Predict the 3D structure of the following.
Amino acid sequence: MRLYDCEVTSRLLIGTAQYPSPQVLMEAIRASASEIITVSLRRETTGGSGAAFWELLQDLGTRILPNTAGCHTVRDAVTTAHMAREVFGTPWIKLEVIGHNDTLQPDVFALVEAARILSEDGFQVFPYTTEDLVVGERLIEAGCEVLMPWGAPIGSGQGLLRRDGLGAMRAHFPDIPLIVDAGIGRPSDAAEAMELGMDAVLLNTAVAKAGDPVLMARAMAQAIAAGRAGFEAEPMERRDMGVPSTPVLGLAELI
């Protein structure tokens, strides 16, 4: 999978928040085999633990995708992105501009504006967006080469609420990497996203808040691999009626 100028093997991107301990975080990321982890600038600089957390991330040897989590305006998102580039030394930014406090739905108008500003400033933007095709087109026009549609509200674990919309995105943007971001709760949700033809899945809470985060990270990785293989195998179409799998011709008859 190619994301901007980077090629990766793993199709699982994983977050670093809410884990019960730094040790569990490290073990879960390693179990996931993820090559890209997303980090909030707020998480990196909170309290006096920022330096220790940064050292932990460096020990993992993964690529960092900073995010603008918690931003509600274009100004906040752009400012946070610039700070993140200085801290993490990467042009990558997962752009979040939240528009609704309850659902955490992105403000797509502010998102497009912020994406255009950041793209012009040399950032490689990963926008957290909806499955709206027009918004997707505007983001690509703004300079984005990746789209990250939500599956469901952040942290809800509801799975894919807009399956048809995601399928329409895949058909409409055949050459754009699509990464489902938010709402994945179970391995079956991740597998379903991949079966739809999504290129990858980004998740956090489903692993961090599991009873066994390390085991769940491994399960998510396996589900994503299975879902991708299922998509590439071109699964059969669903039918309205049953069709016998054993041919009738040649069955024994009583005379």
